[in-house]
Amino acid sequence: MVMELKVKNQIPCIDFTNDPQNLEEGSEGWNDLCNQVREACEQYGSFQVLYNKIPSSLCQDVFNECKGLFDLPDETKQKNLSPKPYYGYAKSDMLPFYEGFGVENPLLLDAVQDFMELMWAQGNPKFCETLHSVATKLHELELIVLKMLCQTYGVEKHFEAQAKRFENTFRLLKYKVPPQSDSVVVLGAHTDKGSITVLCQDGVEGLEVLSKEREWLQVAALKGAFVVFVGDSLKAWSNGRLYAAKHRVVLSGDKERFSYALFASPKEGVIIEVPEELVDQEHPLLYKPFNFMDFFNQFLATDLKFNENPLEAYTGV
Ligand SMILES: O=C(O)CCC(=O)C(=O)O
Ligand SMILES: [Fe+2]
């Protein structure tokens, strides 16, 4: 049975918690969820998912701990560097209300520990454990979504190889309350450039997703829910079946907003190439093979970032 959980003017909300059996591959419930995930990713490029394998208390612990991180002195925060743009600490005059940290490879406890030791001389064992644990669980969710998509397209044989080509980055974000009382766009409209993003919100709303009808849909800050986004590179890999939705953050109240997300992106050197099973008469090849990091760097460094369809402009057939 396909359950219609879509509320008007909202991205779909898919319930993974109904029955534990539904997450058993091959069960009727699993197949039904696969279809819902595919439909959401094709039509909205995003969905909320109710998922109870990440305890709410653990999600909240990250929010509690990260306040102290954002309160550190600027010179300490700036030590969170990465050779890759947008993978480290970000704060700029262009985005005056936004601030973000990046923890690369958060599935490796040592990498999280290195980050903590950069920020605090003695490290921060509790935060380290919490962040690593949440990242590990968000990664499990990311892999479930990827597996479901591979299965519904009949390319499950590519799932393992595809997952191995991802690297994960954890980003912690804070949005300050703008002094103006009206709504302010604190993070501009963009598509995620990587493959899959799984995001956790702290209860303060503001995230909006642009529908295909060009209407901004507000994403409710639901408890126990995570937001999943399809990124440009997964859209390319699917030969355009999946949609990469623009999204932004708009603040209007008097509460600062925190969020964090696990971003899965193709590793350095990975070439995105549409599997031959996804090309046929009905679906002619839309994208030439391309090096993801080259696309990403070019996007950031050139006018490509102002293009409405950067992926198509860069590598469209
Ligand atoms: O903070 C949010 O809810 C959205 C963040 C986001 O879209 C991003 O970092 O790419
Ligand atoms: Fe995003």
Automatic annotation (TrEMBL):
Tagged with keyword Ubl conjugation: no
Please provide, alphabetically and separated by semicolons, the GO molecular function terms listed in this UniProt record. dioxygenase activity; metal ion binding
Where does the record place the Fe2OG dioxygenase domain? Answer: 165-266
Query: What UniProt keywords are attached to this protein's entry?
Result: Dioxygenase, Iron, Metal-binding, Oxidoreductase
Q: Which InterPro entries match?
A: DIOX_N (IPR026992), IPNS-like_FE2OG_OXY (IPR044861), IPNS-like_sf (IPR027443), Iron_ascorbate_oxido_reductase (IPR050231), Oxoglu/Fe-dep_dioxygenase_dom (IPR005123)
Domain of life per record: Eukaryota
Sequence similarity: Belongs to the iron/ascorbate-dependent oxidoreductase family.
Q: What function does this protein fulfil?
A: 2-oxoglutarate-dependent dioxygenase essential for auxin catabolism and maintenance of auxin homeostasis in reproductive organs. Catalyzes the irreversible oxidation of indole-3-acetic acid (IAA) to the biologically inactive 2-oxoindole-3-acetic acid (OxIAA).
**What is the protein name stated in its UniProt record?**
2-oxoglutarate-dependent dioxygenase DAO
Q: Which organism is it from?
A: Thalictrum thalictroides (Rue-anemone)
Lineage from the top down? Eukaryota, Viridiplantae, Streptophyta, Embryophyta, Tracheophyta
